Amino acid sequence: MSISDLIAAAGDRLTPTERRLARAVLEEPTLLAFGTVSDLAGHVGTSRPSVVRFATKLGCAGYPQLQELARSGVAEHLSRPSQRIRHKDETLAASRTVLERALGGVFEALADGRLASLAAPIVRANDVWVLSGETSGAGARAFHSGLTMIRPHVHLIQEQSSGRDLSSAAAGDVAVVFDFARYRRHAFHAARTLADQGVGVVAITDGPLSPLAGLTDNWCELRVPAVGPFDSSVPAVAAAELLVAHVAAQLREEARERIDRTEALWAATETFLP
Hints:
CATH class of the largest domain: Alpha Beta
Shape: elongated
Number of strands: 7
Order of helices and strands: HHHHHHHHHEHEHEHEEEEHH
Number of domains: 2
Helix content: 55-70%
CATH superfamily of the largest domain: Glucose-6-phosphate isomerase like protein, domain 1
CATH architecture of the largest domain: 3-Layer(aba) Sandwich
CATH topology of the largest domain: Rossmann fold
Strand order of the largest sheet: 2-1-3-4-5
């Protein structure tokens, strides 16, 4: 049963606050699908207990079950850019609110030692293999660009050449995978194959329902909002930059020396205009 059906079935049993929650969920399904209890409560201007009571009123065991239903609903429908064009008419202020909330969520996702856990295998790895889907490509490219400046043996994998490139991967390496719903078949299968070969996996994804979360314990959950018809690249790029910065801090002199050598080469070849 869909969220809309559950709300319709609850009917006049909903309180005024619960009706506001229902309206928010129907107007912006991704808020429920990928947000926390606090996100939804803050958006509507109510309390966390009210959100939990709303979930139970709809017949769910709690917020996580309601969220799971929402995720299954939005994965196919609202992930389509054409549907977003039909149903969303965002103002600049609304987009700013969405992006600020998503950026705050990046810092929450990487708090409490999570950033250090994600970075540790990247610091130690012999080779780093960077994989991504389409939506997450900006984050993967930002990560690859920054990481190549501070350590060697970093490879951004393109789908058309992945078989050839990944044939060199081995135990002691790490694959860093960026992907969000709708998940790319290639990114998942490549990551799973590498995991089966003993390559460590670090996943930047959008929650425990992501197929990437099943490949590794070392993953983080980012909320990826839509800005206009398309998913925002801001959370993935922000996470990539924070991850590179943490790796650089761990590598210290090695990172500094590599940056200096690169800068010297750029100067010698007059890479940039004066």
